[in-house]
């Protein structure tokens, strides 16, 4: 089976981010789904401004190039105030511009997120799907992946302590693989 290279964005810059733990788990489990996951960092991106469209900042250009070089992107989002954290929205705005140079157009994507709340980022993910839809990124619709981050579910290193969560994450990654294969075959 083809191994796809997937860039992932972590929508939290917290040093204690539970979504970063989730990202580490996904990196470890990805080979079981014939995926290689590589982070595309967003913490150093300047705030997007149309003033810079004529001369894109180097960090933004590097970020856009990394998305374009990936077969697909995975967005790992916290939920902040029932929406997408600003740092992640800024990254998506940066990816989308200058007008006509949307790095996410046609790029397969998948969303997942973890929250201490029981609905596991469901509302933030709906907002994220709306943004990705506008950006013409074909999204994995099912299975949805709302992770309720109970204490101890993930170790700091990204080991999952619960078998059913491990099984779910591997099955979700396999669905991401199928989604990428289908999306890329549709455009070739
Ligand atoms: C500004 C802010 C807003 C939050 N809003 C929500 C929310 O709407 N829903 C939710 O389930 N948790 C919410 N939380 C709690 C987060 O789930 C929790 O802080 C989580 O650790 C954030 O993910 P991170 O550690 O990867 O940054 C919020 C936290 C912060 C700091």
UniProtKB/TrEMBL annotation:
<dbReference type="GO" id="GO:0010181">
    <property type="term" value="F:FMN binding"/>
</dbReference>
<dbReference type="InterPro" id="IPR050712">
    <property type="entry name" value="NAD(P)H-dep_reductase"/>
</dbReference>
<dbReference type="GO" id="GO:0050446">
    <property type="term" value="F:azobenzene reductase (NADP+) activity"/>
</dbReference>
<feature type="domain" description="NADPH-dependent FMN reductase-like">
    <location>
        <begin position="6"/>
        <end position="148"/>
    </location>
</feature>
<dbReference type="InterPro" id="IPR005025">
    <property type="entry name" value="FMN_Rdtase-like_dom"/>
</dbReference>
<protein>
    <submittedName>
        <fullName>NADPH azoreductase</fullName>
        <ecNumber>1.7.1.6</ecNumber>
    </submittedName>
</protein>
<keyword id="KW-0560">Oxidoreductase</keyword>
<dbReference type="GO" id="GO:0005829">
    <property type="term" value="C:cytosol"/>
</dbReference>
<dbReference type="Pfam" id="PF03358">
    <property type="entry name" value="FMN_red"/>
</dbReference>
<dbReference type="InterPro" id="IPR029039">
    <property type="entry name" value="Flavoprotein-like_sf"/>
</dbReference>
